[in-house]
Amino acid sequence: MWECKHSYIDPVSFTYCDFLRPVVHKNVIYNCRVIIHDKKIVLIRPKMWLANDGNYRELRYFTPWMKHRQWEDHYLPRIVQAVTKQVTHIIPSFLSCSISAGKSTLRRCHH
CA gyration radius for the chain? Predict the structure, then answer.
């Protein structure tokens, strides 16, 4: 699953990239926000509430993150490790996050 996103990380040193992607953690598939800054993964945040009405059926494929206010190490796939030089990354489960990069600060709040 990471092969496609690997192409975003490897060739270009970009400032910031934010996307949703499936992440398999301990044999469970989560829909996660992944934030990359200068070829490093700075945030993997699983969705805690999934859309399951109207045209949306996220529960068909994903599991909501139920470990509120807990952190876990996530072992990155080898293809990502080769590019980012990171072996693990922490999966947080807090409701809001703030990422500071130089002079700018990103804030994303989830209610």
Answer: 14
Residue 14 burial (CB count, 10 A): 12
39-61 pLDDT per residue, tens: 788 888 899 999 999 889 999 99
34, HSE (Cβ side, Cα atoms, 13 Å): 22
Q: What is the 3-state secondary structure (H, E, C) of 8-55?
A: HHCCCCCCCEEEEEEEEECCEEEEEEEEEECCEEEEEEECCCCCCCCC
CATH, residue 83: 3.60.110.10
To the question of pTM greater than 0.70 for the whole model, the response is yes
Range of the domain at 91: 3-109
